[in-house]
Amino acid sequence: MTNPKGESTNALYGFIRSIFKLIKDFSPDHFAAVFDGPDNKLSRTQIYSEYKSHRAGMPEDLFPQLEKALEFCELAGIPHLSVPGVEADDTIGSIARWAEKKGAQVFICSSDKDLCQLVSDHIKIINPHKNNLLIDRKMVKELFGITPEQMIDFLAIMGDASDNIPGLEGFGPKTAAALLNEFGSLEYLLEHPEKVTGKKQDTLIQGKEVALMSKQLAIIHTGVPFPHEEEFFHLKVPDLEKVRRFYQEMHFMSLLKELGSAPEEIKPQPQLKEEPDVRYLVIDDEEALKRLVFELQKAKTLCLDTETNDVRPMRASIVGIGLGIHPKLAWYIPLNGNLGKVKALNFLRPLLENPAIGFIGHNIKYDLHVLLNEGILLSKIAFDTILASYLVSPQNPRHNLDQLSLEKFGKVKIPIEDLLGKGKKQISMDQVPIEQVTAYCCEDVDYTLRLKELFEKEILTQGVQDVFENIEIPLISILAKMERNGIYVDVHKLEHMSKELAQQIKTLEQRIHQMAGEDFNVSSPKQLSQILFEKMGLTPPRKTTTGYSTAADVLESLQETAPIVGEIIKYRLLEKLRSTYADALPNEVFPKTHRIHCSFNQSVAATGRLSCQNPNLQNIPIRSVEGRKIREAFQPQHPHSSFVSADYSQIELRLLAHLSEDPQLLRAFREGEDIHAYTASLVFNVPLKEVSSEMRSRAKAVNFGILYGQQAFGLSQELSIGLKEAAEFIETYFQRYPRVKEYLNFCKESVRKSGRSVTLTGRQRPIPEILNKNPMIRSSAERLAVNTPLQGTAADLIKMAMIQVDQLLSRDASLGMMILQIHDELLFEVPDSTAHKLSSAVKKIMENVLTLKIPLVVDISIGKNWSEC
């Protein structure tokens, strides 16, 4: 987790969550968050210089989070202590013993077993890592086999690896517990070693000093100075405005939202919905609607929000329309009210289709669809706040209206669940009382307009106005057309394939069971882990909280070690094809059109690429035979039509050549060489005609790996070669393409200086994590710095081409229709008679959409189904 500045926040977030969970679950009368003080190990390192010396240093990105945790405690009224020269355990012990003497019931919240020495009738431990397990005297005995009074001796005997307390060599927890139960104390054992048999007797004699020293290290000191006033430990009234700002700065949106439903002592200030000058009006009679339409016809821009009975736009029926010109004033026109749907829409149609008005919305493509369902075409789209938010902050994963209202204005909007309910009792919007829908819809309009005012300025200051106005906004209506066009799929073919896949899966499963020597659930990671790593003894690369990982990358790394692994990988592939596509796609067919209508998202991928959902047709595998069979089921709906595919060839590598200006790369593309073979000839220092398929394959891996900042380790894994060989390969690559290395370094350095990566078209992506103190986060940011200008420019190239292609199809509808975009490829459904004409026109547009130092190349394929393309 990082905030918008790129600072790590995961530990801080966990700390705050833990504090509030404890307060909520236990409602304490007194509370304290205790931190280690500076130079906290000093007292124990004077006893033993190696105390905690084996521990790796605290991760660099944790220090600032600890400081922020102390700051948060101050703002939120949480009593906190950090005593110089003292470890937290000693401070905790001192407070616990003092509070016990005052007659309090004390609960220490920790997973540290050392603190069990403090457990008494009035002091207990809550282990938050074990679902708030309550550890009392009886539980200490159950867990460790000893009493709390024996805990110090227990630690002294067995030692403590986490604190580097040596203990007695060869004495584990079971032995330590047994000896203490038999002899009572460490001192008695050391005074009477002859009562212990075997080698352990010698260890007790020789290790006496070490054992006594270990005991000194294990003792929690309870004489630490701290405020002895009971009032100090009371939860204070938080500074809510500062807490809110703190959450916003850290980007803790869920915590910010919960301020509205927090315990009484941390309630927020009144919400913005109570602003006195806010007016949300319902328009439900003919005269009022006529007057409103007359007034709104004068507007240059108009904000629009539709309420419907379905989240799927093609299946949604409109329930009402919200309108607004300025923040704090909005009107709601119910279509299920007095006027009725037909009459209300007839009044509204001239307004909505007025070409002089530019419409504003949040995810306005949805509203566009809903109105098209009623035969109304919005004349002009002027602004979309979801796209504006995405363009200025593409690194943020969420841009929904509720999230943005919370983030930008601290506003907790009316949750949709308040209107519709949940689960079996959920109703649809047309069943909700009109007054409630009015408040909900008008609030959406109001905050869309507030966000528009905010983002208009940010778009200008960040220099992304051109991308917003000339690429993203025009694309909205084009994507809506593509979504409405949809794609036809032969359901019978998919059903037949589902049966074929089920049979193949069953056969594979039997083979896997035979290889394993027993029946088990191949789809269960836990059972699979037991078979591979316990029964068959394969070396597990990594462990998870529930056992050894069986993730795809783990299985791929184990493929060469046992034949069963390859079969499991194939089983998973076939099972995914069956469940995700063969079985699921028929359910996505819209009965009215007999076609699948997926949704394209402009505000998801941080690089600018379009994503696809409901269903995702961009991820259907093309390299496997079975994946190609799935694509075979997608075909033109009419017999005398074909699919035309137009695909940019190696677009990112071409952009790398253009941006790096490497002479060898430029030469290869200008002369139309096979770039992977060309690279192989340079790296292996052989003539082009002598490049083998294996050489080309390795060069291809490096060519594409470079685009994603791949290092020697990643390449060695992908090619199954040694780390040294992979490193040498990459080094040779950069020797042959020196300007490429210079360009990659330039990308990283420019992001370090400016905090953002910029594409050829001006699209920007903030990457503040490049200065993060955590090396893993930092190296990930460096990879983004390298890839973003390439993938982001490629994304914009195809978007710009789509805009020009749409203009072509609008002029001549007989050419066919654009139905899909799959990253660097466009798919069209066209009459056979115009297939070649369209292909030629589209190729020309795509290859000339931007002038580069090397030619853009588009591969055209024509087929009777998607697989043939």
Short characterization:
This protein has 869 residues and is an alpha+beta fold. It has 34 helices and 24 strands. The two termini are 41 Å apart.
Can you tell me about this structure?
The chain is an alpha+beta fold and 869 residues long. The chain folds into 3 domains: 10-233, Rossmann fold, CATH 3.40.50.1010; 272-486, Nucleotidyltransferase, domain 5 (2-Layer Sandwich), CATH 3.30.420; 604-654 and 749-869, Alpha-Beta Plaits. Helix content is 49%, strand content 11%. Strands 6-9-8-7-10-11 form a 6-stranded mixed beta sheet, with helices on both faces. It has a 4-stranded antiparallel beta sheet with strand order 22-23-19-24. Strand 10 (358-361), helix 15 and strand 11 (381-384) form a beta-alpha-beta unit. The longest helix has 37 residues, at 775-811. The relative contact order is 0.07.
Question: Which features characterize this protein?
Answer:
4-stranded antiparallel beta sheet; single chain; Nucleotidyltransferase, domain 5; Alpha-Beta Plaits; 6-stranded mixed beta sheet; 3 domains; alpha+beta
